Amino acid sequence: MARPIAAIDVGGSSVKRGVVHLPDGVDETATVTIDARADRALLLDALTGAAADLLDGRPDLADLAVAFPDPFDYVAGVPLLRGLGKFESLFGVELGDELRSRLPSVRRLSFCHDAEAAGVGEAAVGAGAKHRRVLAITLGTGFGSALVVDGRPVTELDGIVTRHLYDEPVRSLGRADDVLSARGLGRRLRADPARVETGTSDEVFVRFGIDLGRFVQEWARRWAVDIVVVGGGGAAAFDRFAPGLRAATAVTVVRAELGTAAALIGAATLHADAAG
Asked: Checking CA distances to 174, which of 52, 54, 157, 168 falls within 20 to 30 Å?
């Protein structure tokens, strides 16, 4: 039986954590709220604390897999986010070295792209499990994307870095990260999407779905994907924007099934792959 892997998924408003038992089990899950705009010291303490809570009293846990939003040097373990309103205080910080020094029980540490991790998880045991070529979209504080083929992320195709769709334009509306994220939907509604009562602002949800569908259709067709899986916090409103989304794209689009477990399973899977 494979040894357990501690995994954390760092998002713009929270850190999800859990112990993963591959191929598909996750336990000891929890979500910790963070402020991605905080200063360096506070963010380092928050990230270290999230991991330490998993590792404490667990000598069997020597592996830590970290999913983190792009831009990020995933080999060196260095965040490179600027102009996105999150984690800017960590720009250029050798996060891998910081975590190793603060978490001495960790023998193997790896970093991966958060949307790729979620896509790998959904492709393995979630909504994309029966499909060979999956485009995973994450609607969170930002807009995440991953192309997963045969269970593993393809980082570049047709000259496009597949994880960089967040920076692609949505017609004249702006970047996908600003327009098609959960944050973007909230701006349209001028409210938290989760708090908008059913039957109100329906036209806003439909318009958001149409914009998302047209954007998704372009890339799904270019990359010949079998299915699009939509996850992240914004997927809580999936049923409300799905009519517009499905009307604007010919590819099958479904809501993610695994919730916060997707990125944890995916991060652990990629961690194990790297170990050989």
From this structure: 157
Cβ(232)–Cβ(184) under 8 Å? no
Express each pLDDT in 81-118 by its tens digit.
Answer: 998 889 999 999 999 999 999 999 999 999 999 999 99
Residue corresponding to tokens 């329906």: 202
Residue 145 CB coordination number (10 Å):
26
Question: What tokens appear for 188 in the block?
Answer: 């349209």
What is the per-residue pLDDT across 220-268, written as a single tens digit (0 to 9) for each? 999 999 999 999 999 999 999 999 999 999 999 999 999 999 999 999 9
What does the alpha-carbon distance between residue 62 and residue 78 come to, in Å, rounded to a whole number? 21
What gap in Å lies between CA 7 and CA 5, rounded to an integer? 6
SS3 call for 173:
coil
Please choose, from the candidates 185, 177, 157, the residue with its C-alpha nearest in 3D space to the C-alpha of residue 115.
177
Q: Which residues contact 139 (CB under 8 A, 6 or more apart)?
A: 180, 181, 182, 185, 230, 231, 232, 233, 234, 235
80 in Cβ contact with 124 (< 8 Å): no
Residues 69 and 142 sit within 8 Å (Cβ to Cβ)? yes
Exposure string of 251-264, with b = 16+ CB inside 10 Å and e = fewer, is: bebbebbbbbbbbb
pLDDT at residue 276 greater than cutoff 70: no
CA distance 262 to 16: 11
pLDDT of residue 43: 96
